[in-house]
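User: Can you predict the 3D structure for this chain?
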Amino acid sequence: MQIAAAETGWTAARKRKASRKRWASLPGYLFLLPWLIGFFGLTLGPALASLALSFTHFDLMTDPRWAGMANYRRILFSDTKFWESLRVTFTYVVLTVPLKLAFALGVAMVLNKGIRGLTIYRAIFYLPSLLGASVAIAVLWREIFSGTGLLNQLLALVGIQGPSWIANPDTALYTLVVLGIWQFGSPMIIFLAGLRQIPQDLYEASSLDGASPRRQFFRITLPLLTPIIFFNSIVQVIDAFKAFTPAFIISEGTGGPVNSTLFYTLYLFQEAFSFFRMGYASALAWVLVLIIAGFTAVSFLSARFWVHYDE
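Assistant: Here is the predicted structure, written as structure tokens:
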């Protein structure tokens, strides 16, 4: 009987302790409440609704009609515009991301030399990352690369007659690549932080052994920066796949000329808000999710072969 009473008292003490822990964690959940509402109401909920709509025909005017895998079959086997937009997007990603990271690393190494006014230069170089995806910058870019734009005016000073860069299907995409590279500030700041973490003793010891700056870069700097390169490459590839505003503004929503700037996201936008094929646009969105997820998975699987951590 005494043992039963002791067990009952122990159980009651545990319940009181658990109750106190729940009350102690309540303020934390209250602070998290806005984020939880945003995540479930504005992110997870719409994402699941989009997944459901991807299996339907839906035009915003009538109720969704079940279509099964018809949208996905059309994407893979009969939509030539899908493959064209995918080609344009992959070209943009392959050109923009490596060049942006190389440029960002180069600028970061210059700033890491301890020049005067570092904070001012860092803010100036970071500014394009804040403004580059805006409508205003896209409009400015369109004016710079138009037939009578600033670039052609500068070329005319040296006797060169430049084309309308954004109206030429051979050059239109490259103007967007240049705009993407110009937004190098964000990876530059991350590279600069990584460079500051490399011990200077390694450079001093290698200098005593006769290592040149080039050898130090490839034997010390790059290997120790591989975690930063890995992180930056994933973030920048995802951002490149999601690029939309510059292509929309510069091509005036058409993806022209001759679909040369038809980014995947722009094609998705056309299907959703120009042709009101919401079910098909939802399927396109989920295909993009799978493409990005596949790239991320491959990146993590390959990271063990070239990313070097301290241990």
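The chain has one domain: 79-302. The chain has 13 helices and two strands.
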